[in-house]
Fold these 3 entries.
Entry 1:
Amino acid sequence: MVLRLAWLALATAVSSVAGLTAIQQLNLGGHFAQESAVSLRDPRGLEIWPLFPTGEVPNERFGLEENHVAPNMKDLVGMFCAPGETTGNWYYNVTIPGLLPMLVDKSNPLFKDAAVIVVPGGGHSFLAWTKEGVEIGEWLNSIGISAFVLKYEVPETTVNFTRSVLNLQRAMSLVREKAPEFGLNASRIGVIGFSAGGGVAVRGNSLLDKLYDKVDEADSQSHLPDFQLLVYGNSGQGGVPISPMPTFIAHTSTDICCPVKQALDYYQLMSKLAPTELHIFPDGGHGFGSCRSYPEKWYEVCTWPDRAQMFLEQQVLHIPSQKSKR
Ligand SMILES: *[C@@H]1O[C@H](CO)[C@@H](O)[C@H](O)[C@H]1NC(C)=O
Ligand SMILES: *[C@@H]1O[C@H](CO)[C@@H](O)[C@H](O)[C@H]1NC(C)=O
Ligand SMILES: *[C@@H]1O[C@H](CO)[C@@H](O)[C@H](O)[C@H]1NC(C)=O
């Protein structure tokens, strides 16, 4: 109960400083640390909400040492899937899952009442935290949408998605519960998944039940997203969604890590169930993220955020296209 209150206090503190950029929040770390028994930080010092109270991570694993490091060019997954990746940080050995809030303040003229949980990739062995997490949150904030970057448990040794999916289920439930406090519409909470993170998203939305025992009232909230975006997502892992939602898919023909056939097959499945769009680019490979690191090389594919913005405005926010400010 004490920890539960700590989480609420933390959330309130974050809400009151919403509107600051992620970098500005850096300076508030000391303040948050006093509010919570659990102090988690991302590599830039930003406060991360724990997903579960201390000692209540389901089947908590021990003996792994969490590490955040510059991309390791010798990592086989990284080398194979995103050889151009050299910027930012990766997370290894995540055993205490969390959520990095990146909120847009209600007073911001760009404010929209939707939020997206960002699920980075990394082949279930690490998290591409900067490129497929924080930078994506910054992009969403720039178009008025709040973001929550999911720090899910890796490595997933069995790759049966138990840990990563239950982390996403819990994150979705927490964000829904807190939605009114942040001025968010609890029916406009979606997910964006990159690579393995896309696999977590599509797997998660095909499960009716939560994969963990109820921890607190937040778990009365649905864990199913209202919309989803998959960017070079491993959608081959997906089943039929429990509640079909508008879906945006961006992929390239030259993806050797998650073959484009996965995107085509998932489009075939989803388009029968809900508004679904599929963007296939001829070049760009895998792992381009928001494209900040690869702007010249893969120019066309780097329009995906513009297309995703239009999807969000039309399928989620229901802003008539002629009125959307672009
Ligand atoms: C992950 O934890 C294991 C076990 O402690 C350790 O051997 C390994 O070096 C860690 N990985 C990284 C990248 O820190
Ligand atoms: C998945 O992994 C979890 C945790 O290791 C294990 O308890 C569960 O039985 C596994 N499920 C399947 C279907 O293999
Ligand atoms: C919340 O979002 C849902 C789904 O888009 C919409 O039907 C509803 O009107 C919204 N509620 C408010 C108060 O805007």
Entry 2:
Amino acid sequence: MKIPRLSSPFEMPRRSFLNLAAVTVSAIAASSSQAQSAEGKPPSGDGRLRIIVFGAHPDDCEISAGGTGAKWAAQGHYVKFVSCTNGDIGHWGMAGGRLAKRRAKEVGKCAEILGNQSQVLDIHDGELMVTMENRRTICRLIRDWQADIVISHRPNDYHPDHRYVGVLVMDAAYMVTVPHFCPDVPHLTKNPVFLFAEDEFRRPNPFTPDIVVSIDDVAEKKFAAIEALESQFYEGGCNGGPHLVPNPADSAAVAARKKAVREEWAGYFSATARRFRPALRERYGKARAEKVKYAEAFEICEYGRRPDKEELKRLFPFFGA
Ligand SMILES: [Zn+2]
């Protein structure tokens, strides 16, 4: 998204939306939907997979991994989505605390639909930086989740927050196993598998589809999540405008707008299936692969554990089912 100029008439005071007097760290649980322990942590040692996804804004995890996340969650695996900023400038007509709270609620609703946990870090949208404090925050979150799989943006991306999420997560890879780095949270004994979500940027190197997952069976959940992200898609986010939003009393116009949003995203998710059809054939066989309508794709980051084919089958227990 484009960042509105600071002189925008819509810009509002952007101090933190929560009472920071009571909060000493930047990580704030915005919502939590998965039935887990009181602290929101899944029980350990039960053999289920633990996946943590980092996105820059409260919608990125849902877009890049919402379908695959829903598939893991449906099988009882533990999935957490973390937005690394609070999204407080991501709208054409509102900003600040009011928008941050609204977006935290939106991703909370998505979490109920998709079956994941959701957390929003209280860092201003458009202002995420690669700092030691943020590296530690990411490292703690991965350790705390005892992640088997970590997913993020690649560091080649149009948006600075996306790029820096990619860098911060890469910087946490391996360091999560180093005992005296962030010794306040127990280190992991095994480096997780780190994955990048799909993008279309080609320089310095294009995205490589190491794993492509059909999300046809959970597509309706993903479309429901898109609808729940109302400020971003129905209303158009920071590059939208009042012309997109029909009168709520005009039910035909509301339905038409919802349909337009759904069709736009359907095109995007089906483009992934078309773009990576050869990779789908490898996983699903030719006959099944040709029928896949919607997909999500991931690239293995070289700095995490390098899974072999057998481990990939264990980590993505959807192929051949
Ligand atoms: Zn984003």
Entry 3:
Amino acid sequence: MNRKTSLLLSSFTFLLVFSAFSQDAEVEEREYPNREDNAKCFVCHGQQSFYETSQESGETIIRNMYPCLIIDSVKFYEANHWSFGCLDCHSFDYTDYPHLRESKFEYIPTCLDCHEGDEAVAQYNFERIAEEYEKSHHTQLTDTKYSCWSCHDPHGFRMEVRNEEVISHVVATDNAMCLKCHSGTTATDLLLGTGLEPLVATHEWLPETVNHFRHVRCLECHADLVDDVLVAHDILPADQAVNTCAECHSSDSRLLHSLYKYQIQEGRIKKGVLGSMITSDIYVIGANRNIFLNWISALIFGLVTLVIIAHALIRIIKK
Ligand code: HEC
Ligand code: HEC
Ligand code: HEC
Ligand code: HEC
Ligand code: HEC
Ligand code: HEC
Ligand code: HEC
């Protein structure tokens, strides 16, 4: 392992540990009203294997849980819906095992069933998001299974933009939602740049493709931006996607109206002011032009020239 990779790895580990600690602090104060009840489901759905007892002979065997039915309990309790019980969304019939066949046809509520006109989450503007979603390319597909839950994992979604300060983490989580279907890769693959070959091939016009995928969301190029929602939900057909560099690499970068919008609203980043340069996480060539810095660099350049001239003069005199 060379020095650069080990440095990268150790800083990554540090970040992981650090974020685990900071989350612990926040999570500790919570009381989980449904933890006990949920444990009755997690005993099977929380791990790779479970015990099944024959109702006839009383014999107990160990069985493997289908991988797609395993739910990460840690993620579940860190999600926006951390206080939920499984039965808030699923039929009460699931408390029996073997599960009734009929329960597979249960109706699972959608976001709007609970959040339409919900004052507590008014700032998200669910109604507008739903309108945008209705227009999106995906919704026009004939596959009726497509819903809000297709991207928002019911057992673990957490809104990142509003909760996470490190932009690259927001990008990784949000892109993983798309990559789940568009290349079968996870957030870890994205970090390591593996498994992305097919997508990189269709995006070969974009130099440093994987690097771009780490710094911008798919949404930045593929969704139609609107002012009244923070995260655009109208995914356009591919032929309408952003394909010019200047959309982002310019002083009125598209990113100021999408990826960085929340941080700008919160005053964490000031548009075009020195502050934006300090957050190295969001430095984009061309977008961060700043007159003050231009003057500083001119000054530094002037000073360096002076030093060189002085140095040359001294050498000539000393000869
Ligand atoms: C004894 C182990 C066990 C327990 C306890 C258990 N499940 Fe299951 N569950 C399974 C197995 C095995 C399957 C897959 C076979 C099937 O669908 O019956 C399954 C399937 C499911 C499915 C359907 C997946 C699909 O799309 O077909 C849901 C939803 C579900 N369980 C929810 C629950 C909930 C909620 C609880 C707690 C109230 C729970 N389960 C408790 C073992 C269990
Ligand atoms: C906020 C609502 C919600 C809660 C809470 C919830 N589920 Fe689900 N669950 C869903 C939805 C929606 C689906 C269908 C996902 C899809 O179609 O992609 C689902 C699907 C499943 C499946 C099938 C596998 C899958 O992921 O598609 C299982 C198993 C399951 N849930 C178990 C549980 C258990 C166990 C709990 C409690 C720890 C739980 N659910 C809590 C909404 C919920
Ligand atoms: C079964 C009803 C129900 C469904 C379905 C549902 N929610 Fe919620 N949601 C709630 C409740 C209740 C809360 C309040 C959180 C609590 O009690 O901890 C909440 C909280 C949230 C929060 C956190 C708000 C905050 O500021 O802390 C977000 C974000 C959210 N939901 C988004 C969604 C999205 C997106 C969907 C669909 C993908 C969805 N919800 C589906 C009932 C629901
Ligand atoms: C194509 C994938 C996709 C679908 C489908 C989708 N969303 Fe989202 N949604 C996202 C992404 C990505 C984010 C950004 C999450 C973050 O980083 O905070 C998001 C964020 C949100 C937010 C938070 C916005 C904010 O202001 O912080 C809400 C609310 C939301 N979605 C609701 C919905 C509802 C309601 C539906 C269905 C009508 C839906 N979403 C369908 C991908 C999707
Ligand atoms: C549940 C699976 C699923 C998720 C999640 C998903 N997509 Fe898709 N997407 C599809 C399917 C299926 C198609 C249709 C494939 C086709 O038309 O070739 C599609 C089509 C598209 C297209 C149009 C392709 C074209 O040829 O015009 C774009 C662009 C796109 N998705 C972007 C995204 C983005 C960005 C996200 C994340 C915010 C996302 N998708 C999340 C399944 C998904
Ligand atoms: C910098 C802008 C940009 C970014 C970032 C971007 N795309 Fe694209 N994408 C495009 C453009 C432009 C096209 C159309 C290319 C063409 O038609 O030659 C495209 C094509 C596509 C297509 C249709 C072609 C295919 O591969 O089937 C899909 C699906 C897609 N992108 C998904 C994604 C996903 C998922 C991400 C995030 C990992 C993403 N894109 C990130 C600009 C972008
Ligand atoms: C959706 C916005 C967006 C578009 C469109 C876009 N870029 Fe970028 N680009 C970024 C961001 C964000 C970075 C990351 C800057 C960093 O390294 O921190 C970046 C980084 C780069 C880098 C690497 C700089 C480095 O230090 O590694 C190059 C080169 C680049 N872009 C060139 C291009 C070219 C050429 C195009 C057009 C074909 C383009 N970009 C289109 C947003 C974009």
